Amino acid sequence: MLPRPDLCQRPEEAPTPLVWPSAGEVLAGCKLTRGGLRLFLTLHRLALRVAFLRGYRFVPDQVAFHLPAVSLAGVLDYHPDHVARLGRELERAGLLDCGGHVQKVAGSNLYDGTLWAVKVRPEALAPRVRADEWRHNWRPGFAADLDARTGAASEMSGLQAEGASAEDRYRAAEARAAVPD
User: How far apart (Å, rounded) are the C-alpha atoms in residues 83 and 169?
Assistant: First the structure.
């Protein structure tokens, strides 16, 4: 019996795998403080993970995601105000665009976290959070978090209280960035 013609055809070549630029490549020529460097390395790692989990098929110029600053502060053992200052340093360096995200809950506008647009490719322009990202409802369950006091601050303080490792705190922040709710 002769083989079927469709089985004799050569398979298409596999797509070339994505080569994600390292944070070092993106940082080439940037002068940052030690804290700014730590924050960018963490944000870049989160951005690559979020892009992977979202199934990006190409390397974008930037990756935007929602993550409360208290989660990042917990990962880095910094105060949230210090994370905000370091974020401004990264914005001036053209590596980041960020800002507080507000959501309407029971008629009131409440801060529900921070939007982070992180530069991923060295040759890309400075990142910008797009208008549709500002309008997006990143945390549909935010009202329930408020009522039950189970948000990011509660999660991170619980991890710190039980002495969780930096990597465990990072994994919690990564999960919250990838699936904000």
Answer: 16
